[in-house]
Recover the amino acids of this structure.
């Protein structure tokens, strides 16, 4: 009986070879129990199909988490912008530093020049034993509280020594003339730097 | 959103995920439900299938149809979910239901209730054969079983279903 039911099952599944179908129909015509099985299996087939066909699921909208590729894409895009921003910062930062270094170097050079000019003039007066004139110069290399080394020089001449930190002052003399007092302040660091580089 | 089967999908074309969802989510739901016997779980599986598909879209090689591919994913997810269930509890529950059924001879059991008494494997085979109308060969590709096994198991599934219904 099981053998014929297996054949019925294959037949209703449409998987039976046409040559075997004649044999099945012959068996069915002779076997009432097989015919009942055939009817039952057909009903089951249709019933199962109807059962699933009647399902009309109300599906929620598809909610996908951000796919990995999208995440990766977003991550790479963010990284690109971040890298570009970082590169710009580094670029401008470098330019700023180079510019500052250049300016700092210029300033140091300027201060060095001022220092040398005043120092040389002072030494020249001293060398010539021109006390009157040399006295007009005072040299003060004492570090102040702020770490500033003052090199003050007073020059009667109208030649003005300029520098970033130069402050011009005028002093009235007894003969009625007026002298210019030039005070150049060189920071300790600048002073040391100028010495280190050979001045 | 009501899913209908009246959407024609041309294979070998690039389909967006939303197109596939619209076309196949209903079938995937039915297939999952046939295995899991639970509507909520089946709905969860539908979402999981498309998430999985989106993750593995690149590995779709086109050797089978999109639908077959989706059903294979569905099957794996469903059986993985079944494994997670406490098997002991499930067995006790099945035994309890069986006893209840045996006692309650007078109650008329419907086909859908009878289907719930089948194993997940029998249910999925019936779904694939009766609703999807797949051949034994196609079912064997989806389930990973031999054609002969599919044939025998389908027969056993029907035989079991017939026995359950006959008890009424």
């Amino acid at each position: 009986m099981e053998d014929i039911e297996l054949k019925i099952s294959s037949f209703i599944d449409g998987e039976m070879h046409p040559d075997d179908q004649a044999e099945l129909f012959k068996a069915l015509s002779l076997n009432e129990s097989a015919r009942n099985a055939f009817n039952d299996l057909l009903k089951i087939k249709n019933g199962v199909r109807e059962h699933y066909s009647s399902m009309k699921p109300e599906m929620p909208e598809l909610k996908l988490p951000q796919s990995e590729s999208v995440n990766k894409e977003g991550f790479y895009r963010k990284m690109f912008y971040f890298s570009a921003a970082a590169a710009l910062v580094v670029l401008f930062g470098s330019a700023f530093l180079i510019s500052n270094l250049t300016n700092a170097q210029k300033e140091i050079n300027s201060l060095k020049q001022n220092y040398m000019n005043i120092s040389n003039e002072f030494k020249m007066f001293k060398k010539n034993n021109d006390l009157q004139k040399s006295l007009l110069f005072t040299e003060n290399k004492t570090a102040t509280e702020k770490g500033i080394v003052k090199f003050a020089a007073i020059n009667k001449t109208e030649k003005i020594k300029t520098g970033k930190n130069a402050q011009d002052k005028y002093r009235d003399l007894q003969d009625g003339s007026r002298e210019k007092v030039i005070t150049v302040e060189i920071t300790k660091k600048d002073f040391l730097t100028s010495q280190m580089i050979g001045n | 959103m009501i899913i209908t089967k009246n959407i024609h999908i041309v294979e070998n074309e690039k389909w967006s995920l939303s197109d596939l969802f619209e076309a196949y989510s209903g079938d995937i739901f039915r297939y999952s439900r046939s295995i899991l016997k639970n509507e909520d779980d089946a709905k969860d599986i539908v979402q999981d299938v498309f998430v999985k598909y989106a993750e593995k879209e690149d590995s779709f090689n086109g050797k089978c149809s999109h639908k077959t591919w989706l059903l294979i994913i569905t099957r794996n997810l469903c059986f993985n979910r079944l494994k997670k269930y406490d098997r002991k509890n499930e067995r006790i529950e099945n035994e309890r239901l069986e006893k209840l059924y045996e006692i309650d001879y007078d109650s008329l059991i419907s086909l859908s209730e009878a289907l719930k008494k089948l194993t997940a494997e029998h249910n999925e085979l019936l779904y694939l054969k009766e609703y999807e109308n797949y051949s034994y060969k196609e079912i064997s590709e989806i389930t990973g079983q031999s054609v002969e096994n599919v044939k025998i198991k389908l027969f056993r599934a029907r035989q079991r279903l017939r026995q359950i219904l006959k008890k009424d």
